[in-house]
Design goal:
Elements: H1 2-35, H2 46-55, H3 57-82, H4 85-91, H5 96-137, E1 142-152, E2 155-164, E3 167-176, E4 182-194, E5 197-207, E6 214-223, H6 229-236, H7 244-256, H8 262-272, H9 274-290, H10 298-326, H11 330-354
Antiparallel strand pairs: 1-2, 2-3, 3-4, 4-5, 5-6
Amino acid sequence: MMILYRYLFKRFMIGFLVSLVVLVSIEVFFSFTAELKYLGKGNYGMSNLLKYSILSLPKSLLIMFPYAVLIGAMLSLGSMAADMEFISMHASGISISKIIIIILLQAFLLSSFFYTIADSVVPEYTSKAEIKKNKALNKKLIFKHNGVWFKDKNSFIKINEIYSDENLKNIIMYNYSEDNTLLSIKTIKEAKYVDNNWLLKGIEETFLSTTPVSKKFSDEDITSSFIDKKLINIKTHKSESLSLFDVIKNINYLENNGLDSDVQKKIFWEKIFKPFSTIIMLFLAMPFIFGRHRSSNISKRIVLGLFIGIIFFIVTSMLPNLGMVLGFMPFINVLLPHIIFVIIGILLLNRQLDSGLR
């Protein structure tokens, strides 16, 4: 039986690796060409573009991994089905159901290993890539006419321009007492995080708790109690720039400060379910490998695989966000699409196997 395990894994890995190389190459090419529009802006030269592309390579691997698993399986296992290898296995007393379980288990172990490594590598390199790019372009991470609002302890902070989690501009800070009385309003032209402290520039503070109301002006001030960098990271970092450990810290921080943590919880469960998502996507392709379509040509299997992958990706991206709007629990929002597709996969597989192999 170990010979069978090794043979199936070898065939699966060949298709997977070929697909991964091709898909990542395409992703890197399109990413590189998309970055050309920034060339020459600010200090963004060809060397910056190449650095950004190299540092973004782990992110490209993460994006294309599930599709490589899907297409690789359809190519290699589909080729085995077309060569009647599964019929030979079936004639030897090995059921198709057992072959499917072996393939899915191997893919799950590969996915779990990959996503565990990616969770520590991708956020680090993606963050570095974005920081280097934004510094070269002098680009704002967030800029809104109404500002971005933060709550930190007894302060409400409005930041109009965020260049990084260490460089903020045009800030208004409202400080309240424990009984929710407005104590002061502080405007800050620029804030930079230097040596574990905030360097504030262009400060004007109005004290409303004094009689009469008084104002204080200062060119610079150094403080450690301005705003927690974690809050800025939560607002500015995308899910691919966060490791699972970072998300857990964000959830704890938000809950300890009485803030809504549902978005971070959704990101947490999406990361947990990633290996399962890959396996479900592969499971949906099984009817086209073992069913009546197993003799279809390679190009048709690729089209079918891409079609399955796109539908799965769209639905699993939309439903959790829709659930957030409707007020469902983040865990339910992420779990529900997976359950739906597992049921669809079982129905499709049973229907196809009725006219194929059992």
